[in-house]
Amino acid sequence: MMGANNAMQREESLYQKRSREANADFKRSERKYERGVAVSVDKRNRLLSKMMSKANQESEAAAQSAVMSEMLLPEARGYLRGAKDGSEKVTQRNIRQHLDAQTAQKQFSLSNENLGPYIVDYASNGRTFAMAGAKGHLAVIGMKTGKLWGEIQLREKIRDVKFCHDDKWLVLAQKNHAYMYTNKGVEVHKMDKHQWPNRLAFLPFHFLIVSVGREGVITWQDISTGLIPGYTNTRLGETKAMCANPANGVIVTGHGSGIIKMWSPTVRRSLVEVHVSNAPILDVAVDAVGHYFVASTGNNAVTIYDVRTFREVYRMRRKHAVSGLSLSQTSILSLVEGTTCEFWKGLVSSSPENVDKPYMSWRIGEPIQSVRFCPWEDIAGIGHAKGIHSVIIPGSGEANIDSSLPNPMESRSEVKERPVKMLLSKLSADMIMLDPAAVGTLADHSLSYRENQKKRRRQSEFAEVEIPNEVLPEDAQALGSDRGEDSDDGPGDTIGQPGADAYLRSKPKKKAKRLKSASVKEKNRGWARTQKAKREKAADFAAEQKRKAEDAANAPPKQELQSALDRFV
After folding, report:
1. Is the dihedral of CA 396, 274, 178, 222 positive or negative?
2. pLDDT-based confidence at 10, cuts 50/70/90?
3. What letter does residue 431 receive in the DSSP assignment?
């Protein structure tokens, strides 16, 4: 009997130990899906306290359901495994022999030597792709059936192509403006506010098409209403590197000064500035989760940064400059170097792996223009000078399809209802911010918070810089000369002395001069001429009034009129 009790106790302790381990694993997985910290409010406000507690419970339930759904994921990501020493080479032909017929037919090549180079873009559901040639050729083709949905020759330069919320609408960055077309090639709308666009981006949750052009102007436009929620001048000249952060909708741009900037349509100035290199930024890309961004520079370097901390994670030197970047749903990175395209796996993470050699590489005899990954598929589209290549990259697409997002398994009714649901759940432009978890939280506008903000602004107005003694004015040196020769800093040093510090802190910072474009300068000159004419007119009017007053004062007094009765006095 005693032995049976001991066995039961051992089983209970083992069960409790496994339960504790399972709960700890569940909590660790739950933190991955948490969105911000739970908000606590004053319980005296019953309505607000009830609303916030309900929001916290819903957030916790969503995180728990996301963890539970991990156990039900039926599919695993694809992979390619070769010899460890890299001696074994696997070609696209070898990969195709082990694929099913439906996937194998997505590996193809299309050539058109006279209208390139070509740019490729895929719809969000992965069922359609568009190829746009620099000389005006546009073709929209279905991925599953290979059917040509539409083809048109615009006879005008095309710089970029971007699908909108579904595969029926797309926007082209043409010579002077951006234009919207259907997948049949019919022009629907001319977006004249987007002038000389170089790059395009689309924010599906906000229904915003974004462009940056030759003048360095970023334009946001709502394609559902036609309104312009934001229009910002970067003041850094022509910009050719731009992408959108899919996690928060922030626009990331790379400039010739080696600076990466992040923008929101409701803020005139940039949200963040990251100095990556002294060389110009050639291209920039952000991963699907929004945790990392990759930048290629003109000094043959590729740098990976963590968006959450804005710190450099890894820097890689290349033999040639990387002109194009792209990231798949599983963070496989593509690098374009002239006629070669390399695919790196495990590089974009907090601890980069496989940094010695690429996962796969593709080399052709023509300069490569762009590389794009197909959503939900292990396919990458490579656009070059004479056409496009559709190649198979195992593990580049997400294996488990999310039914709440556009996907290739949608039925006809779901395809029709998708735009309506997206419009009903559309987010406003002022919700685009660096921390999306801040939406729905309470802003701290207490007295202590406002006082701290005023103190920070007051302190930022004064510059504390260290300069040599010889460049200080005589009055500052005189103020600091009372320390004598016994000072630790030495008789000739005034840095750190009370007088010199007082002189330095009393001098406010000078605001940086902003470079103005020719149109802005001409507008300012016209405004100055108008103001000068108004001042001259007001001065002439005042002089005329003064002259009339002086004439009235110097005039002889008027004789009073006499009545008829005055004759009898």
Report:
1. positive
2. low
3. G
